[in-house]
## 1
Amino acid sequence: MHTVSKEIIPSFPARSFNWAMSSAMPYSAALMLAVALVPVTGCNRGHSADVLATVNGHAIMKPDLDKAYAAQLGEAQQQQQQPTHEQADSLRLNVLRELIDEEIVQQRAAKMNLTASNEEVDAKLAEMKAPYTEEQFDQRLKASNHTLDDVKHDLRRSLTMEKLLNKEINSKITVTDADVTNYFTQHKAEFNLIETQYHLAQIQVTSVPSPQPGNLQGSKATSEDEAKKKIQALKNRLDSGEDFGSIAMNFSERAETAPNGGDMGFVAESQMHADPMVFAAITKLKAGGITDILPLLDAQSKKTMGYSIYKLISREPAGQRDVNDPRVQQAIRQQLRDGRSQLLKNAYFEMLRDQAKVENFLAEQIFKNDAH
């Protein structure tokens, strides 16, 4: 979302090597189904002006498109970049296609009795609200221009999508030991680390202004004195045994890493030499250890811009990894599973589109008005 300025990011970037950390890519109906549907053209048919499209007779209404369009346009509007007439129409068509694709999926799930229940939605909502007080959650809703009903609506659709994909795709994917061995044999060089890698997490505090600090508490130091007091208070809590990831999520001011508990991924040793003080402190640690408070230096001026505390999660020495390494196995299995899942999703959604009857009245209107 929001990012802190480059001046306050450590001079070595967070970078992971492909087998060491595996994570499932997040997805949404809008991203997975962002393939254009061919609009049905023809003579005008009777329908309300507020009906912009239908999917198997189910209407997609103008207010729904307007809301989704405003959400996508929000960042450009904040930067005072108003789209041209053609750009606005193009964006509206893209957003409408996403709504059409989502509706196709939701109808399929309903037909298979896979629509998320009220209990499932409430459980997911409670999970979302857990890190916040009621007041903080309400403030976040207001800031995002969403109501609680909006959130429940979106949760129901995403949970329904997840249930459908688990039933129709994920349950059908298997990765055998032979698959893992064959992949490793063909990509052995990928598992040969040419230098030591350090898996790090960071808590960062700085007095440099930023739009959003990225942590759950919205906690931000606004002066050098505040930054010093805040980082010392956090170090005291760590020394008393509090969880590093929880502290980072709630108070760290590096927006890229705070939501992940401060996790920076794997950093190559050569990158860490850019800041000798940090490198020296980290190389003294055993896995699980944390550094003292360290100054955060501006990459160009070398002036102190804030303060950091680092945690060494693990150290991976250079050398060839073996196929029997559990982390190698896990990474390969996840990569093969993700690849097969994406292929099946593409084919599955293409089939759903072919089976659906879609009428895109907005596309017809734009074509009629702009074709000369």
## 2
Amino acid sequence: MSSPIPEQSTDTNGSGYITERLLAERIVAIFRGYTGDQADEAASALIRGGIRLLEVTMNTEGAPAIIYRWRQLYEDRAFIGAGTVLDVEMAREAISSGAQFLISPNLDEAVIEYASARGIDVWPGVFTPTEMVRAWKAGAKALKLFPLGALGPEYIREVRGPLAHIPILATGGIDLGNAASYWAAGASAFGLGSKLARADYIHNRQFDKLEDHARHWVQTVQSF
């Protein structure tokens, strides 16, 4: 089961600490498009269900304000990061708002350099072995393999052969029915959007159901 975050560690960034938590917790919840009280209540439900890493995508309206607010609300309960960080300017804005980690759909070495210099772990988006090696050499602590939905777990198995030392955050097309296959193929953790932060539960304000759903996810991935 997922363990509470030690209070003394909530401001510990860099040196791979957040990545260590990623590899222990195995789930990052992706929030895209949710704002205001709806977003806060959904985040609280996921945290109650055991989710410990929350990503607010930077193309969400008011994303910097949400990141800042969640750092205050959940400082001893969850790590808050920024997603869809496409360039250094977005990285600067996210970090200034309190983001504890950055995730991108793309590889931009300048983002890795900027964040790493400030002690922030970056998990950039990659697709090919060449991109994976470039990102790792640039200082990325883990890599977001994206998108995976059209390829399936066998692609992870193949790239893990020569690149077994690089942690992989599998994102895109992961659900409760296939997560075990991705894990067996070599995924280190999962980036989960709508399969975890279910729109029907959030829009209908069924936050107890969302909490139970999150708990089921946590129990599932911790059983691998």
## 3
Amino acid sequence: MMLANGTVLGFMHGDLPASLRPASRSWQSGTLLVACGCALFAIQPLVPLAVSVTVSNGLILLGLTAYCRSLYAFYERKPGVWLPLPAVLGTLGVFWFSAIQPNTEIRIIIISPAWLVLMGNSALILKRGAGRDDAMSRRMLFAIFASVFLFTIVRLLHYLSLGMATNFSIADDASRMNLATPMLAAILPVIGTTAFVLMCSERIRRQWERAASTDYLTGLPNRRTLTAAGTERFKAARAQDESFAIAVVDIDSFKAINDRHGHDVGDIALKHVGARLKSATRGVDLVARTGGEEFVVLFDRVEPDQVEAAAERLRAAVRAHPFAAGTVKISITVSVGVAICRGEDADFNALLRRADEALYAAKSAGRNQVKLAA
């Protein structure tokens, strides 16, 4: 099952986005390494003890290291330089106490902390990922790592309590723990791989949702998101008798910037204006780019006598900060049309049309100013 899961993940690798392929490749490597290590344990009577114990434990430790590296890559974090050390030290220790001074108890004492460090670190990475990813698959994978981590502690304490002889074997059926270990060892490569694939699927779904709701250039909400949010806030304002206002912001003479400096500079200018508008609003307000050089700001719970001042802050924030692109430095201004929700507004689109009319009035009056809709 481990080999099958690793192979299936290999076939899926090419269908994943480039950002997820490093994590997928590391997880596949981990699954195949653990599978090979377990397979070598299964044929232990056919291979010299020093070879089978050392190589199988080394492969499993490398597999756990690959899982840890995969999770670092998934959350776009850089692993520490210490990451290979548990596998290296654990493998060397197992080799010494199987080939030089055979002692099963000391081998278990050496290998268990190495497992715990790698699995504990993987669980910690998943725990810290909760801020970015609240998917059930992440919680499931965290539970798997935590469960195997706790089992490893119980396993270590169990074997220590037995008072093992130096030639004690963990590959026969003399102890129930000998039977439980391979069953638990299969959880990460089999069920864990399924959870990891679901994590990748969930990440892709969120990326598509973000792409569908976000302006590709500025990272601000797009027209689709604006319409949905505006409709919802319009209804809430009507139901709760709260004030609701919007501002339509348009960059003055934007075509001249594109014509004179090129579209690349124009794109930088759009991102600059979006950032300045965002900096001049509160956390509850929404700033969206609706296309071209036009932006819309939803003012949430703002008093009618404060709306014009809030819109003026938008205009001033852009005017006060010229933007630079290489050697090009341009002072940009915006015109702003503002509309406060009135009883005659049938829906959000009606409010938006009135703000548009106020914007045209600001343009006609000479640009770089705020006009309030009648």
## 4
Amino acid sequence: MGIFSSLFHLNRYMLLARVVIILLILPLHEFAHGWMARRFGDDTAEANGRLTLNPLMHLDPLGSVLLLFTGFGWAKPVPINPARMSNPRKGIIWTSLAGPFSNLLAALLGVILLQVEFPFYAANAGSAALLAIHYFLSGFVTVNISLAVFNLIPIPPLDGSKVLMMLLPYRQSYWMQQHQQVLSIVLWVLILIGALSTPLNYLCNWIVQFFLWATNWIGTLVQMLM
């Protein structure tokens, strides 16, 4: 992904969007994990005070700083105990998917707000307030989709790896569990050399275009009512 690629391309709107994501969306991501685990009978997150949207309970200092300046970051993982789940295999899959799904929902909300705002922005191109809102929402959507796509990479310790391990045959799943540290190092190397940038950017752009297409009627409706 090239975690330092956006360091010198920051603007105040993107910075504000990232602050909002750190304070609201990272906690939502972890809350979603804990909430889904609770649905399957695991109350570990709740017992540890992590079934909350309070950012102070979730934020990781290094992960927050990195997200603020690079767009790549993380929160403290919510504790999960599969042994307490009524259906551990299914529970782990859905619990792992809940976090990225919350990012996609947040991004979809941002796209809907963009569709509502864009007709006003297009009709009042000189408005500094509308320009600020437009860039803020664009940054909000971009970072949320990037977080969702990144977390779905099937390499430990990311959410996608937990889904993959539950879907693989026992031998392959066991191998992944035994080599999680090595695979995590491989992930960091791929990030630092930017090897993930092209495929991740392609997927992110595809999701953005899909969301815009699916919500285009909202912008058309707003324009008709103006």
